[in-house]
Structures are given as structure tokens and as C-alpha cells.
Design brief:
- Two copies of one chain form a homodimer.
- Chain A is of the alpha+beta class.
- Chain A is built from five helices and twelve strands.
- In chain A, the strands form three sheets. Chain A has a five-stranded antiparallel sheet with strand order 10-1-2-11-12, with helices on one face.
- In chain A, helix 1 crosses helix 2 and helix 4 packs across helix 5.
Chain lengths: 246, 246
């Protein structure tokens, strides 16, 4: 499994992904699930992936045109004129890869599916954020649903629902994401540290702050410990139930 | 879907279940998912169910021996000498019902599976709590895993993990369960009010407090609103992230 969140704020975009992949619980590896393409000053596009690792790596390789000799590569994702066309490009490749794996060779027990989050900005339009399904169709984040989660989404959702605010600072967004990831990591073995974090500041057309958050990260550990205590205090602050108060 | 939690405390047992059943999102009904059998002074046994409603209703009907004329009924669940045998009885019936539905008649798109929580106490032993799988096997709650969730378990799990304490009062347990149910209801349409609550006080051998919590319940609404605010305060109380603090 996996856990990734892409979030649209008034100030830009925030991406966070875990790095755990597993085939069963006895075969665990660490792979980066976040890839960025940029033409500084003109575009910045980040892709996060959950699902079959062979599928998502193939999609990234095709996007980077690794089928060509290095000198001949001129990735389309750096040429498309809009984020919508970038989403079309990625979703088309995703469908092709899944189709190719599904129709040829041995049948696998696990599916070849993958779900992607694609976000970024191309000069001339606003930052945009898409969720791309294994079927190759996609949806875009709007004001009503300003963030997307993929992978193991449920444990970390309640805090996002309650604390997200489009006007929040990048710092608060990182704090919120770390709480959401910590809740997920505590509940599910298939999501694990380190985490990859990336900020995109609106109209910067370049990747912003990036950070890899490992298990030694002092801030993450402060959040992880502090959130347990803060939750207990929050819980205690609620009025007590009384059986006779009916 | 469904959400039910059975919890073992030092003082006894607490059960809470929602009442929503759905076949797709356009066919929603309300059914009680909690059934209790008791011989006051000698035993109290409560069953909660998630999964195929026809299956779980059939199991309950068989447990109540509704295949016999009313006067001939003498439910085995009121005769078995231990909670372990009660779990064996229930799990055997569950497997029979699922097998019967699966092998005969039309194939259904959805499965006939169901998962059950069975808890209670029979004179001579401690209160015990079991989770019964559709395959007919079961596990018992111990000190390390003192509560079971069935159905839509993920949204409401982080707060249980953080705030559960075996020495907590029944009042605190109800508060905790309401927070966990509220988080689930807010995130998932397939879990809905009203909720059924039941307390079992250790060595009472009779059902304790029972309550149906509807959407008009003032305490539930206080918790639901208050928890959002308390979470935000808890979130604000955590130290802020700083990009330069690396």
C-alpha cells in the first residue's frame, strides 16, 4: 500500500508521499513515489503514485522517454501547453501500461492498477491538481474538494476533513499532513517512513522546499508524540457522558 | 457497510453499532445490528454484525431457533456452558448460512459474507469478547488487543488507538466511541445514525444501560461539534513546522 496526499492551497500546492512498497508483509522495500519535471520559470509538474510499482515506474519512464537514447529525449510533459493536457498524457500512458501488462504474459494475483496524483502549474494558468484513475480517466480538485488522497486513505482522513483550510500557511499544511501521515503509519504497516515532502509556491514555476522526513526527524517525532497527548487533552476537554442525562 | 465496536474494559464490556445498511448508495435502510440474549443472574450475551444482512439475520433467527414453533424453542445460546462454546455455536451457524447461500440459487455480485462481534459473560468465568470471521473461525480479545471493530473500521481507529485505556469509566468509553463513530460517519456515507449503545457491567449477568442515539441526541451533537473544535485546538497546540529548522 501507500499513502500520498496532494493539497491545493491559496498559496500553491503541497505534496507528501510515503516510500513503503510491499508484496505481502514479508517483502517490504523503500521507493520514492514522487517525481517532478520542471522548466524553471515556465512550469513545475509533480506526480505521485500508488498501486503496482512496476506500472507506476513504467509510466514515469515513458514520461521521461527512456525508450529513446538520452540525447534524443524531449519529454512531452515539458511541452504540453496545459495541465489538463499533462493529465491526458499521463492518464493515456497509465492506461496503456496497465493494458499491456494485463493482456500479455502470466496473469498475476495482484492487479496491475495504479492511481496517480498530478499537480503543478504551467505559465498562463493557475496551479491545478488532478487525481488519475487506473481506468485512465481523471478528476480535478476544486474548491469543494481541494485535496486528493491515494493509497491507504482512511485513517488519515478525519483530521484532514476537520483541520484543512485553503488559506493556511505552508507550515501549517506540513504540520497537518504529518499528523495525517502519523495516524496512518500508526495504524497500518503498509505505510512507512521516510516521507517525501514538496512545496510548490504559486507562480514560482519552480520546485519549492523539498524535504525527506526520516524516522530520526526531530520535528516528526515531536508531532507524533505530541499528537497523542494533544488528542487525549482534546478528548478530555469534551463534556462527559452521563447515563442519567437522557 | 457498517461500523461496530466491542470493547473490553476492566469494568465490563461496551458495545456500539450503527444501523445503516445499503445495497448501493441509492438503497439505504435502517436495521438494528445488535442482538442480546440473557438469563438474568446467569448470562448475558450480545452479538453485533456487519456484512450481508440476509446472512446476519439468518444467523440470529437460527440462534433464536425460529425454525421451531415458539413453544418448542430453547435456544442453545442460553444453554452453552461457556462463552467459547457460544462463539463456536455462532461461528458454526454463520459458516452454514454462508455455505448454504453460496452453493444454491443464483450467484450474487456481492458476497454472502459477514463478520460478527460476540461478547458477554456466563456465570463462572470472566467477560469475554470474540471476533468471528465469515470463514467460521474466531479470535478473542486479550490485553494487547482489547477491542474489536468490524465494518468500516479505519476512519475511527486512530482515536481508539490513542485514547483507549482499560481502566476508563463506562462514561469515558461512551465518549470515546461517539468520537470514533462521529469521525466515521463524517467520512463515509455507508455508516449512519442512529447508533445503538449497550453497557455490560462485569458480574452483573444482565444487560446494563442501553441507549439509541439518534441525530437529535443533544450529547452526540455536542461531541460532534465539540470534537471538531477540540481537534483544531489540539492541532494548533502542536509546535509549528519551520522550513529552516532542518
Amino acid at each position: 500500500m501507500t499513502y500520498c496526499v496532494g493539497m491545493r492551497l491559496d498559496r500553491g500546492l503541497v505534496f507528501m508521499s510515503d516510500t513503503r512498497t510491499n508484496a505481502g508483509v514479508d517483502n517490504i522495500s523503500t521507493f520514492r513515489k514522487m517525481t517532478t519535471w520542471e522548466t524553471p520559470g515556465e512550469r513545475m509538474i509533480t506526480l505521485m503514485s500508488s498501486g503496482n510499482l512496476a506500472t507506476t515506474q513504467a509510466v514515469v519512464s515513458l514520461l521521461e522517454e527512456r525508450t529513446k537514447a538520452p540525447d534524443d529525449r524531449d519529454p512531452s510533459i515539458l511541452q504540453v501547453p496545459s495541465m489538463f493536457q499533462a493529465a491526458q498524457l499521463v492518464s493515456g500512458l497509465l492506461r496503456e501500461v496497465i493494458d499491456g501488462h494485463s493482456r500479455n504474459g502470466q496473469q498475476a494475483d495482484a492487479g496491475f492498477g495504479a492511481t496517480l496524483i498530478l499537480g503543478g502549474q504551467i505559465a498562463g494558468s493557475e496551479p491545478r491538481l488532478f487525481l488519475i484513475y487506473p481506468e485512465g480517466n481523471f478528476i480535478e480538485a476544486g474548491d469543494d474538494t481541494p485535496y486528493f488522497q491515494i493509497g491507504e486513505t482512511k485513517y488519515g482522513r478525519p483530521i484532514l476533513v476537520r483541520a484543512y483550510d485553503p488559506s493556511m500557511s505552508f507550515e501549517d499544511a506540513v504540520k497537518l499532513l504529518l499528523v495525517s501521515f502519523d495516524s496512518t503509519i500508526k495504524a497500518n504497516l503498509s505505510v512507512g517512513l521516510p516521507l517525501d515532502l514538496q512545496i510548490y509556491e504559486k507562480d514560482s514555476f519552480a520546485r519549492g522546499e523539498e524535504r525527506r522526513i526520516s524516522k530520526d526527524d526531530p520535528y516528526f517525532n515531536t508531532i507524533s508524540t505530541g499528537w497523542g497527548d494533544a488528542l487525549k487533552l482534546a478528548f478530555d476537554s469534551l463534556p462527559d457522558f452521563e447515563f442519567d442525562a437522557d
